[in-house]
Amino acid sequence: MMSRFKSVKSEVKDYIGITFGTMIMALGFNSLSIPNKIAPGGFSGLATVLYHVTGYPVGLVTLVFTIPLFFIAFRILGGRFGVKTFFGTVLFSINVDVIMRTPVFTNDIFLASVFGGVVLGLGIGVVFKFGGTTGGTDLLASIMHKYFRGISVGTWLMLIDFMVVITAGVAFKNMEISLYSTLTLYLSMKMIDLIQEGISYAKAFYIISRNSDEIGKAIIAELDRGVTMLSGRGGYTGEDKEVVFCIVHRAQVFQMKDIVKKIDPNAFVILADVYEVLGEGFKKIEN
Asked: Per the database record, which ranges form the DUF2179 domain (predicted)?
């Protein structure tokens, strides 16, 4: 009974999150993108072009494009495009045309393209975070990939978005619109990544050295960081080696490099971004 309650609670939370995300997206379109003729890819971008050419509402046109495609995708690809995708698609259209009729924030196309990208990406990122999508070109790209296996879904998405961006420039007889739309598209994708992955606040070090024990002890003593010794073997030499693995805060990166340089200037060091660390010395593990 309790597990069922938790499941229902989680589902409700997801739908609230998707609702909030589509409202943010609609805010970005109505207050920044649509008034400045910015078409940042996707069916909503194409709908923006048609709105300025024909006067048809952006949300309605997006829905007209997406709903038939949703059923085609369901028939061809199966049920992986589920209820949350349908919910997100319909709600975005309603928010754009009916609920989020917000004022225009700026008529400066550069500001609109920059902040439009940030706001749109924030909204889409929130929708993704709660397990939803807004359908659209995701569905078309997946269908195309089904029949043209040599081209990935990501490549199809990029091609479709590129065609929409070019269409905007041609329709408005101003290729600068295409450039600004591309900027909005790029910033929205970066914002989506930020929402999904978080801000990189830590760094992971993989250190391969003949003096791995000494390096590990120095890290513990000087930086007060935990160290894990991984077993490795050289692919060329076949020699067994210990790999020092350690995660540090960004502020400790230079100190870490200093320690390695002092002990073994010839060490092989790999440095990688870490977006979330749970455990002692970092964030607590939460339910």
From this structure: 225-279
Residue 224 CA to residue 24 CA, distance in Å, equals 42
Distance (Å, whole) CA 223 – CA 256? 8
For 66-83, what is each residue's pLDDT tens digit? 888 888 777 776 665 567
Q: Where in the chain is the domain with CATH 3.30.70.120?
A: 202-274
> Quick one: 103 exposed, middle or buried, by C-beta within 10 A (0-12, 13-18, 19+)?
exposed
The residue behind tokens 């801000």 is 199
192-237: pLDDT as tens digits: 888 876 766 788 999 999 899 999 999 999 888 899 999 888 887 8
Residue ranges of alpha helices (H) inside the chain are: 2-28, 42-54, 58-77, 83-94, 109-129, 137-147, 153-171, 175-197, 212-223, 253-263
Q: Domain 202-274 carries which CATH code?
A: 3.30.70.120
Q: How far apart are CA 150 and CA 236, in angstroms?
A: 34
